[in-house]
Amino acid sequence: MKVCVIGAGLAGLTCAWHLARDGHEVVVLEKAPGPGEGASRANGGQLSYSYVTPLAAPGVVRKGFAWMLDGDAPMRLRPQMDTRLWRWLMAFVRASRRSVFEAGIRDMLALAFLSRDVLTTMMTEETLDFSYRKNGKLVVFRDEAELVSAHELVALQARHGSHQSLVNERECIEIEPALAGGTQRIAGGVFTPDEAVGDAYRFCQSLRTCLEERYGVAFHFGLEASALECGGGRTSAVRTRLGLIEADHFVLSSGIDALMLAEPIGLSLPLYPLKGYSLTSPIRVTDRPPAVSITDAQNKVVYAALEGARVGAEGRMRVAGMVDLVGFANDIVTRRTDTLTRQAREAFPCAADWSRADAWSGLRPATPDWKPILGQSDIPGLWLNVGHGGLGFTIACGTGRLVADLIAGRTTPIATQPYALNGRSQTF
After folding, report:
1. Which is nearest to 276 in space by CA: 47, 69, 76?
2. Torsion, Cα of 292, 297, 301, 304 (10° steps)
3. What distance in Å separates the CA atoms of residue 153 and residue 53, rounded to the nearest whole number?
4. Is the pTM value of this prediction over 0.85?
């Protein structure tokens, strides 16, 4: 069959890989000039399979009201006349109920573990160069109350297959000595030894080359999908400035842009852009970056050395964080990146040359319950692979596998109903 994948970010490319291996003729359509230019471009770099906690957690709504009054807070909301925003927020509040939150952890861990296995297979079968390194992850807590909550979360995640350790301040510094140079206290942490890091953008570039050279996948860059054509009871083509592209099946993997294609054909997707920021700073031979991937739980900031995670080596340090619900504008707000720089200097003053940091912002396509939307849409021939939120690098390999299995009519390795569009009726 001929399958057209709309979007060449992490979600679209990994899905294309699975489809091409199944023997389908695959065409990938992307409005950007190359792969991975959207939300995949400069994300946090963490492959965090055991820490996929939904953003809508119990208590986050109460914190959100306080954060709204603080311009440097991890989450920022700009109220506006946007029905998408208010519907998403109401569903987010409902998704923060403990029962929904705990079910979300179960479903996201199952998907993350599948994705980890798929990536292992991909790295075995293909030549993929993306600075992959299994280095472990340490979540650092600076508040005693949040550390107590973390104990409960670790116990819950352990019931679903996670292997994590609770560590005190001394053990945190033993695991990652670079923490000793920070200016803020550490109450304790959670260490997961088998997590990894990598460069998502380089992964997209490397996978694109593999798809072209080994599987003959056709790419159309700089060509935007302007509309989906539906006739005879199914999706028949996608409209572009160069005309129609016809196929037997279409996979919508274009991140937040999926809304613009879905809404005109009556498809309501529970998506909203969560704007995030990152810094990429050069690591000099004299710097001392953390070798372990770090998450600062209080500030909601992640740190990952993409290369140069040893003394005497040059490389790049990636810092990412923040959630801004401010609409669809993707401009870089200096106050937000200044906050990120200040936090990085306070946490790891000797990790990188922070004065030469490259700032980036991206729109993460998120659902209220943090689960992606996968599978058949209400329109035959149109498949959904969207809503990866802040976990695109972690779960994309698994979501691509599930969508390809569903198109082929195969039994999937995990249940897909939790990620289906029609399963969202009670939360959106």
Report:
1. 76
2. 10
3. 9
4. yes
